[in-house]
Amino acid sequence: MSFISRITPSTNQIHLIVVSVVSISLTAGIILGGQEVRRRTRVKAVKDSIPEISESHLSERLTEYGAAADLAAPSKEDERNAVLALRARQGDYDDELILEQLARNRVFLTDEGLQKLRSAFIIIVGCGGVGSHAAAALARSGISKIRLIDFDQVTLSSLNRHAVATLTDVGTPKVHAIRRRLEAVTPWVHFDCRNELFGAHVADAQLAPLDGQAPDYVVDAIDNIDSKVDLLAYCDANGIKVISSMGAGAKSDPTRIVIGDIAASTDDPLSKSTRVKLRKRGIKSGIPVVFSTERPGPGKAQLLPLAEDEFAKGNVGELGVLSNFRVRIMPVLGTMPAIFGMAVANHVMLEISGYPHEYVAAKSRDKMYDGLLGALLGQEERLARATGGDTVGLKLSLTADDAGYVADEMYRGRSAVSGLSTRLVLTRWRKPEPGFFDDSIPGQKLVKLSTSDLVCMTKEEAAQHMKLVLQGDKTPEEVYDQKVCDLVQRRIDEDASLEKYR
């Protein structure tokens, strides 16, 4: 009992505890209450400082687009165009006038080809520089149903590359800016505007049929990689024809723009990231893309990083329009998105109308990749024999695609040592540890090798590397200068950062 009495609070102690708790609660309530009163007072003061809209004030109420009415309110011409467009879509428009407006396309594509265009339904995802030019070209060429999907609004910086937006469209959703301007050109076109962000979770609804008609083609003009990959993967899985525009930013040479399979697209960071993520989903080819083969160089525009003072402010992710969207500045020459958009529209028109077209195809490099892999296997066999190992049944964990990735993506088709692009082979960068292959399975020896272990060299350089490093007692740092070692390390680091996507 004495123990219990010692650990049990007395009546006075209980009273003191209760009084303390109540006092703390009252104090906190007073402080929080005072803060709330001050907050409401400040809010009321701000609201009271805003003058009412009157003749003495030129302020305007916001429109449905969230812009000032004097900027986004439709003009008399816009209202007339909207009425004309509604009547035209309802059939109150002379078809002979439409055919006259499309006369040049008609004689080029024939009546049959033009009719296919006029009956088509196209979805354009992304209505910035590329998407707006594609939309304008497709509408002017006879496409009768166009769905526009984009969450963004026209900004002042949009005007250097947007096909139809004007100053009065600033603050207006891009989809409605395009619709409003193109209704003045092609009033018979049915624009289905979706002021929405494309996402995998809403793809079924956003790419759904229009008036019972499934999309004949989807145009991918998205500049966010995750959304782009989601769109392309959805179209691939559902058998929807799609063409994708790769990056037009920091490009300036229109003669380097080509149309080809995504597997052949190179020299473009957006394309590379898209390919890697699609490969993770089992998609290696089969998607036509517009891309530029122009390579970066001294004096050319590059992706601009955020200033150091922006990083010092805190979480840079909060600077983006949406979560996971890039916050760096992309230098864009206004003409390049236009050319990309026109190339996309041209492809769609030829495909739908059935007009014969054959692009200059990129050379198949499958044989070269097989050769790289075979030469690498031969090297590993020589290393195994040099250590007294049995090479019967020796196999590589890498594939020909992996070999191509190292040669073309990691090392840009050039030797890391000399920069030459001929007689290339792959070789280990560092000497392998003893027991570098797994022989736990009878009759099979699997070489423990990853893409980050490899480097691209000429045959002559690889032979010297084998002698001095792989079979000798030197390290790469003792054989090569700092510039070569730094280059290889950068490529290894880049590969490691992309490993999660493969």
Automatic annotation (TrEMBL):
Keywords: ATP-binding, Ligase, Membrane, Mitochondrion, Mitochondrion outer membrane, Nucleotide-binding, Transmembrane, Transmembrane helix. One of its GO terms (biological process) is cyclic threonylcarbamoyladenosine biosynthetic process. Residues 104-361 form the THIF-type NAD/FAD binding fold domain. It is a multi-pass membrane protein. Belongs to the HesA/MoeB/ThiF family. This is THIF-type NAD/FAD binding fold domain-containing protein. The chain crosses the membrane at residues 14-34, 120-139.
